[in-house]
């Protein structure tokens, strides 16, 4: 793997590992799935394919961030606003 792409992949892995700490099913579950996904693609050498995989990882980061923001929003809404019963 080329040097600049290797750096991107390592950065992506670290970011995902950091975000996985708050995953709803647990950090261990997320870490195992993340490791499996990266090991599955460890032999990819085509730079275009690596860029596609990194882009897919960036998309997963955005989805995780959206999940966490939604969870925090729901918790705040539940805490500060009373539900009206009809």
From TrEMBL:
The lineage of its organism: Eukaryota, Metazoa, Chordata, Craniata, Vertebrata. Signal peptide: none annotated. GO terms for biological process: negative regulation of cellular respiration; negative regulation of oxidative phosphorylation. Pfam families: Complex1_LYR (PF05347). InterPro entries: Complex1_LYR_dom (IPR008011), Complex1_LYR_ETFRF1_LYRM5 (IPR045296), ETFRF1 (IPR052000). Residues 8-61 form the Complex 1 LYR protein domain. Belongs to the complex I LYR family. This is LYR motif containing 5a.
């Amino acid at each position: 793997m080329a040097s600049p792409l290797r750096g991107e992949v390592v950065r992506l892995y670290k970011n995902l590992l950091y975000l996985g700490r708050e995953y709803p099913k647990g950090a261990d579950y997320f870490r195992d799935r993340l490791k499996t996904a990266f090991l599955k693609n460890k032999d990819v050498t085509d730079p275009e394919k690596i860029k596609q995989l990194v882009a897919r990882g960036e998309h997963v980061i955005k989805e995780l961030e959206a999940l966490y923001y939604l969870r925090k929003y729901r918790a705040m809404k539940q805490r500060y606003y009373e539900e009206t019963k009809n």
